[in-house]
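Researcher: We're reviewing a set of sequences before deciding which ones to prioritize for further study. For each one, I'd like a predicted 3D structure that I can look through quickly. This is fructokinase. If possible, include the structure in C-alpha cell form so it fits the rest of the review sheet.
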Amino acid sequence: MISSVFICVGGSADLAITTNGSSQESSSLVVCFGEMLIDFVPTVGGVSLAEAPAFKKAPGGAPANVAVGIARLGGSSAFVGKVGEDEFGYMLADILKQNKVDNSGMRFDHNARTALAFVTLRSDGEREFLFFRNPSADMLLHESELDVNLIKQAKIFHYGSISLIEEPCRSTHLAAMAVAKRSGSILSYDPNLRLPLWPSADAAREGIMSIWDHADVIKISEDEISFLTGGDDPYDDSVVLKKLFHPNLKLLLVSEGSEGCRYYTKHYKGRVPGVKVKAVDTTGAGDAFVGGILSILASDIDIYQDEKRLREALLFANACGALTVTERGAIPAMPTKDAVLQLLEKVDVS
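Model: Here's the predicted structure for fructokinase, in C-alpha cell form for your review sheet.
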C-alpha cells in the first residue's frame, strides 16, 4: 500500500500538493495559454453527431482544463486567452473564477463569438468533432492584449498547439512564450493534436514541431508520436529519443491512457503503471494528468533529476487522470488533492 506522505516530494513549504490553495505562494504559479470554448456533448453515448437527440453544453479547451485541474489540487494557476463578448464567454470566465483560477488574463472580443465544438464518442470508439471557429474569439488574441506582468510571474508557462494554427493568435503565442522564457519560466507543451482544425496533416506536423525545441517539458500521446514521426512505432524508445527528445528538453512524458505513462530524461527513462478504475468518460483525462504533474513540478522544479521522486509524482498524475474518467465532463470531473490521495492509499506499488 502507498502512503499519502510520498507527495511531500520537495520538502518545501509551498508545495502545491501539500498545501491548501489559500497558502499557495505566487512563486509556484502555472499560467496556461490558449483556447477555452464550449463543448456540446450528446445526452446519450455511442451515437454520431447526426444521431444525437440532444446536446449538453460543457466548458472545454485543454489549457483551461489544465488550469482548473491545478487549482482543484490546491495549486496556483491562471488562464490567458480570448473568448467572445457573449453569454458563453462570460460563462467561461465565471467558471474559471469559481474554480479559483486567475482569469485576469482573459480578453473579450466584441466582434467574434466564443468557439463551439460538438464532440461525440461513437459506438465504434471513434471520436467525432465538429468545430465552429470561423473565426472564433480565441483565434483573434493580439500581442497587445497580453497580460505581460501575469506571464512574467509564471513558474511554469503551459500551452498547446491549437493557438498556433491562425494569425494573429500564432504570433501572440510566440510572443508570450518569449516573455515567459526571458522571465525564467519553465515552458510546458502538450500539443493536443486536433487534426480537423489544421489546413492539412502536413501543416499540423510542421506547426506542432515549429516550437518543439523551445519546450522544457513535453507531454504527448502514443497517437501523436505516430503522427509526428510519420508512422513510426510509438512504443519504440529509440524512436522517441532519436526523433522527439531534443537537447534542451528536461522531461518528455508519453501518456498511455489507462496503462499509465512513460517518462524520458537525459539520464534515465521508465514507465509508471496506471491506476485502475471503471471508466465512464475519458474527456479531460490527459489534461488532469498534466495538471497533476505540473502542480508538483511548480514547487519542485528539479524533480526530473531524482527518478524516485519523479515516479511518485507521475503516479499521482496518473491517479488524477484515472479519477477524471470516473465522471462525465472534463472540468466537473477534475479531482481534489484529497480524492487523489484516497485513491492512492488503495494502490499497491510493491
